[in-house]
Amino acid sequence: MAAELDFSPPEIPEPTFMENILHYGLFFGAIFQLICVLAIILPVPKTYKMDTESFETKSAEVVKKPKLTAISVNKKLKKETKKKR
Questions:
Q1: Which residues, including other chains, have CB under 8 Å from residue 15's CB and lie 6 or more apart?
Q2: How far apart are the first and last CA of the chain?
Q3: DSSP string, 1-13
Q4: How many Å apart are CA 45 and CA 43, to the nearest integer?
Q5: Which residues are listed as membrane-spanning (predicted)?
C-alpha cells in the first residue's frame, strides 16, 4: 500500500513571458497604490501652504497690470481711428 502512493512534487510548467509581465506588473501596481494612499494620509508641511498663498497674490497683481495696459492701448487706437474719419 505504501508503494502505491506517489509523493513526488507535481510538474509545474515554466511561466511564459506574458505571465511574468503580468506578475511583475501587479507588484508595481500595488506599490504605486500604496504610495498614493500614503500621500493622502501623510500631512503636508504648513510652510508650503504659506508659500502658495503669497505666490497667488503676487501672480494676481502681475496679471492685472498687463490687462489694464492692453485696454488703454485699445482705447487709444479706437480714438485715433475716429479722429482719422
A1: 23
A2: 117
A3: -TTT---SPPP-P
A4: 6
A5: 21-42
CA distances from residue 6 to 2, 3, 11 in whole angstroms, order as listed:
9, 8, 13
Rounded Cα distance, 28 and 50, in Å:
35
What's the grid cell of residue 32?
A: 504605486
Contact 23, 15 (CB under 8 A): yes
Percent helix, strand, coil in the chain, to 5, is: 75, 0, 25
What is the residue type of 61? E
- Computed over every residue of the chain, the mean pLDDT equals 76
